[in-house]
TrEMBL record:
Protein name, per record: Adenylate kinase isoenzyme 6 homolog
Catalytic activity: AMP + ATP = 2 ADP; ATP + H2O = ADP + phosphate + H(+)
Binding residues for ATP: G17, G19, K20, S21, T22, R113
Subcellular locations according to the entry: Cytoplasm; Nucleus
Quaternary state and interactors: Monomer and homodimer. Interacts with small ribosomal subunit protein uS11. Not a structural component of 43S pre-ribosomes, but transiently interacts with them by binding to uS11.
Superkingdom of the source species: Eukaryota
Residue ranges of the region described as LID: 112-122
Gene: LOC106473880
Protein function: Broad-specificity nucleoside monophosphate (NMP) kinase that catalyzes the reversible transfer of the terminal phosphate group between nucleoside triphosphates and monophosphates. Has also ATPase activity. Involved in the late cytoplasmic maturation steps of the 40S ribosomal particles, specifically 18S rRNA maturation. While NMP activity is not required for ribosome maturation, ATPase activity is. Associates transiently with small ribosomal subunit protein uS11. ATP hydrolysis breaks the interaction with uS11.
Pfam families in the record: AAA_18
The enzyme's E.C. designation: 2.7.4.3
Region (NMPbind): 37-60
Length: 177
């Protein structure tokens, strides 16, 4: 897919509370890539396949989501923001960034959002066991998967710089095709 696009597609994933939306918003403004927040797209299009009573959240219909995004992803120039990644086609992405956050910091962030009980514990366990990092490495070529720490404002600035540099390098390498 990347051979026919003039701009890359980027996936930013990680446990809820790791800073994906903040990072994607900044990268979108700097790079001009279009930020696609999967949660917002699902909400707007009612792309749900039920409700998870235990985690207290709607369950995204993954097939409908892929159908919804297919044409947009073909064009390139997209940043996908979601806390899962294994259902997105491998061909969509040129790079995958997995945000990781210290468990104590993550606990505080999620508690501030109102996460409690099983929902809070489940997300902390997801981070402890690096579930999303492993999912990304199993779903995509491991050479395009990068782990980024996301604990502090300095980490955010560093990650913005790293991803911006990656995007600029991709543009240079793919400008003569």
């Amino acid at each position: 897919m990347s051979r026919t696009r003039s701009l890359p597609n980027v996936l930013v994933t990680g446990t809820p509370g790791t800073g994906k939306s903040t990072l994607c918003s900044e990268i979108s403004q700097i790079s001009g890539l279009e930020w696609l927040n999967i949660g917002e797209i699902a909400k707007a299009g009612q792309l749900y396949d039920g409700y998870d009573e235990v985690l207290e959240c709607p369950v995204i219909d993954e097939d409908q989501m892929v159908d919804e995004l297919e044409d947009k992803m073909t064009d390139g120039g997209k940043i996908i923001d979601y806390h899962g990644c294994d259902f997105f086609p491998q061909r969509w992405f040129d790079v995958v960034f997995v945000l990781r956050t210290n468990n104590t910091i993550l606990y505080d962030r999620l508690a501030t959002r109102g996460y409690r009980g099983h929902k809070l514990e489940s997300n902390i366990e997801c981070e402890i066991f690096q579930t999303l990092l492993d999912e990304a490495k199993e779903s995509y070529n491991s050479q395009i998967v990068y782990e980024l720490q996301s604990n502090t404002p300095d980490d955010l600035e560093d990650n913005i710089e790293k991803i911006s540099q990656w995007i600029n390098q991709w543009k240079i390498q793919n400008s003569h095709q």
